[in-house]
Structure formats: C-alpha cells, structure tokens
Design brief:
The complex is a heterodimer.
Chain A: H1 9-15, E1 16-27, E2 64-65, H2 66-78, E3 82-83, E4 90-93, E5 103-106, E6 113-121, E7 127-139, E8 143-147, E9 159-163, E10 170-176, H3 186-204, E11 216-226, E12 236-241, H4 244-263, E13 271-276, E14 281-287, E15 297-298, H5 309-316, H6 323-334, H7 338-346, H8 350-358, H9 363-381, H10 391-402, H11 408-419, H12 425-432, H13 440-453, H14 455-462, H15 469-479, H16 486-496
Parallel strand pairs in A: 12-13
Antiparallel strand pairs in A: 1-10, 1-11, 3-6, 4-5, 4-15, 6-7, 7-10, 8-9, 11-12, 13-14
Helix pairs in contact in A: 1-4, 3-4, 8-9, 8-10, 10-11, 11-12, 13-15, 13-16, 15-16
Chain B: H1 6-15, H2 22-45, E1 63-64, H3 74-78, E2 84-85, E3 88-92
Antiparallel strand pairs in B: 2-3
Helix pairs in contact in B: 1-2
The chains are: A alpha+beta, B mainly alpha.
Amino acid sequence: MAKDKLLDFDKAIELYEPVLGFEVHVELNTKTKMFCGCANAFGQGANTNTCPTCLGLPGGLPQVNEKAIESSIRLGLALGCEIAENCRFARKQYFYPDLAKNFQTSQYDEPIAFDGELTLELASGREITVQIERAHMEEDAGKLTHVGGATGRIQGAEYSLVDFNRGGVPLVEIVTKIIEGAEADAPEVGRAYVGAIRDIVRALGVSNARMEEGNIRCDANVSLRPRGSTVLGTRTETKNVNSLRSVERAVRYEIQRQAAILEAGGTITQETRHWHEDTGTTSAGRPKSDADDYRYFPEPDLVPVAPSREWVEELRATLPEPPMARRKRLREAWGFTALEFQDVVNGELLDAVEATVAAGASPADARKWWTGELTRIANARGVAADTLVTPQQVAELSGLIASGELTDRLARQVLEGVIAGEGSPAEVVEKRGLKVVSDDGALIAAIDEALAAQPDVLAKIQDGKVQAAGAVIGAVMKAMKGQADAARVRELILERAGQ
Amino acid sequence: MSEISTDLVRHLASLARIDLSEGELQSLTGELAQIVDSIAKVSEVATPDVPATSHPIPLRNVFRPDEVRPSLTVEQALSGAPEREGDRFKVSAILDEEQ
C-alpha cells in the first residue's frame, strides 16, 4: 500500500476548515433480536441463535421487539430528538453474504427519532453542540470471517465463513448533521461525540456499550473546506472506527491526508475508507456516491410503529441524569482536581469509582485503586479494569487498610487473589494468611534480632539519626514476609532503641 | 407508456447480480413494461384522499414481548447450506467490501 502524504496538522487547519459528520451504530442489549425471538447474545457458539426469520428462510416473518422500540425512543429522547408519531420500517436491498435476506430491515424516510442535539465538553472546557439529524432502527448483519490470504482481511481471502448469531440484533443508527466550527478541536470532537453517545446509552442501560465488543461502531465523515469558501469539500467516510482513541486518530489522519492532496492541487475521491488500527492510517475502500441504489421500499411484512404521546412521555420520565451533568456533580462531590477527575473519566472508571464510593470507600481511595493498581493490571492483561473486580470488593479492600488489618503492600497481594477468583478480600486474607502481624511480641522479637545483627545502626539511632531505622525496618519487614505495618515497626524500633 | 428501458433492466440486473443475455434483456424489458403498465392502472382510480399504504390491513403497533424463544439447532440452521465449515456457512470469496 502506497504511503499517504500528510500535511502538518496545524498547517492543514490554517488552510482548511474541517467539516465532520458521524454515523454511530449502537447495538441494543435486548434479550432477543429485533424481529425474532432468538437470543441476542455475544460470544456463543456459531449459528446457535438463529431461526427462519433471521436466516431469511422462505416463510420467515418478522415481529417487532417491543423493548427495542422502547429503547430506541428513550435513546432518541436522551439525544433531545422529536419522536415520530408514525413511522415505518423499510427494506434496504443489497447483496452481501452477511445478510441472508439480501435486504436489511431498516428505516428510510421515516426514522423513529429526529432533530436532536448533544452538547460536548472538551478538555479545554470548550463546549460544542452537535446537531442530530436522526436516529433510526435497523437490524445488525451476521459476522464474516475471511479465510486465506495473508492478513485475514477481505483482500486475498479464498473464502468466507458466516455466523448469523448477530444477524437481526437490534441497532439504532444515529446520524449527525454536518458539524462545522470544530476547527483544530475536530479530532477531539470526534472522540468526545462518540464518548458522549457511549455514556448516554450506558446511562440509559439500552446497550452494553462495550466498544471492544462492537456494541458501538462509528463511521467518521471528514471533508475540508478551503478558508474563505462556502462550498463543502468532497467527503470521505472512514468505516468502523471502533474505539474513542481511534476516532480521534482517524479524523486527524483524514484531515492531514486530504489537506496534502488538496495542497498538491489534487482532488478528493468520494469514497469509503478502511481504518487500520495497527498503523493508524486509512486506505481506500469503495467509491461512494450519494445516490447509492439500495432500492428502499416500505417493509410489507411489518405494520407502522405509532408510539402514543402518553407512552413517549412515560419513557421521558425514565431518563437518567444526562452524563455531562452527572460528571459535573460528581467532580464537585468528590473534590477531585480537574486532572484527577480527568484520569477517572479517561480511564472509563466513573461508574466504578462511583459504585466504590457508594459501597463505603473514600473518593480518594476509590480513585487511587481504580486508576492505579487496577488499571495497571488491566492494561497488562488487555482488559477493562472494571472486569477484574467489583466495586464492592475494592471498597472492602479499602476498608481493611483503613482499619489497619492490611498494609498497602498486603492489599495488593489480596487484590491478586480476588482477581484470581479466590473470593472476597476478607476470604483471600484468611486463605492466604495475609493479615498484618499486629502482635507486638512477634515484631519486637524480629526487631531485636535485626538490631543485634546491625549494631552500628543501633548506635546511629541512639545518636539521634532516626532515619537510620530504615535499614532495620527493611530487615523486619522481610522477616515478617511483608505482613507488618511499617509505621508500627518504626515506632517499636525507636522504642527499643530507647528514643 | 411505461418507463422501463433496456438500460434500466440492465442496471437492475447488475444490482441483483443476475447475468442476462441480450435476448433476455429485450424480452424482460417488454414483460416488465407490461407489468408496470398494468399496475399503473391503480393510480388511475386512486384519488388524493386515499392515503398511501404499505400494508393491506390498517394495523399499527403490533409488537412482540422481549422473551427468548427456542432457536433452530446448529444442524437445522445449516441444513440448507450449500457448503459449510465447522458450524458456519461457507461462501465464496467476496470481492466487494462490506456495506
């Protein structure tokens, strides 16, 4: 693949105004699929959750999942949208083996939700409001695995395998209007927008919202407009950018790539682009015209959806506190600095810290565990920190330290045991025998032994050089296999030395 | 007269991934034109006070509760597959990319 020429980002922004647009697909976490009673479940054996309807077999008839409609309406309301009084599903025809029916049941000119807006807060404190054009319901496609070829990618594959478990899972596709005025913040706006959608669907409880499992998938549209021009530039659509960091990188990359082409007097091709996570680059996909011929028509097997205004208002009353307001409230309640709070937010640990505080830990302790030791272990294992332990376990651990039953060091060993599934912190303490040695007799015996072995140290301490006690503390902690409270050991050493 | 032209049928055939010979194109153009003309007669009797509909029965909000029902077994699901590998459907190499 030829390497793209890139223009320096600041230079690109000086010459061009970036114009953005996003399409975000959210997989709903209903128990069943959109149009049939097959389980909506991730990570099960291939083709175990299929039926004639989601396999597109003759005679299969769709039936709309009421919960999916409810979730879509709540999501639409949370995005400040109007909810359609009457809307229909439509068939979007295309031939691709991930859709057995040869059409996707979607919505076309009658989306369930439209005309919303979402305000984002950037790290600088700048706020920017994104207009939402529509949020419509559709079904997900099956999962393809490309076999053969060097990279497992579609290019060069010999054949492909299809698992239809995901086929028919309910999706809401959220489409923004064009976003202007982001300027040099454009990459961050992309990240913040997708992050805000994720926070909202998580707060609503309508999706598992795990980007790494594909619950939220983003297509990023980027075009550049020369300064002084009023005409929109030709856009590209980078598909399936599936992490917040990738959205930011992909937008930045496209701005730099397109600027380099325009600067060299070239033109941008309207096309989809593939995002490559490993290299942080995009490559050309298929040409895309605005008039892609999907031959939409109203789905004749389904009747219209006409949510009553009473139902819509009932659902509006169930909306949670908007995530941005919640963040402001928690930051004040916890008394964190901007930097400390940003650590928690960037680590996606807000829920975990909040639940840990609710379970009795101090905000500072909760933050320390989640953004420190747990994040370190999670990164090393390539998983999310909140999959390792529960907030209750962290709160319990924090309580054991506060009561003096564990030292920080012992607590880290207990944490290992909890992560390994050995039980609650108290159970791990019991099983591994990790309790702090609070028996002064045992500590004094170890101290006397250490002092006897290092007579010069004893002399120094007695001479008033109390920092020399460090060497003895080390020896005692070693003898106690780390299971002693260093502060107590220090006290006892000074006592024994007659200080 | 119908607006079905040979070019339109050729375009539809390519969208539908159907190979048509020149002879088939000609005969299908005629047949499709006849079908479209026949259906167009409906619009002669439809007046503006008849709302467009996509379903013969005037129903709305027909929903299914979100409760899991039994799925097919993997063997049943794959029984119609022309080819399989393990528990998945096997399809020929795809040249185009995903939508």
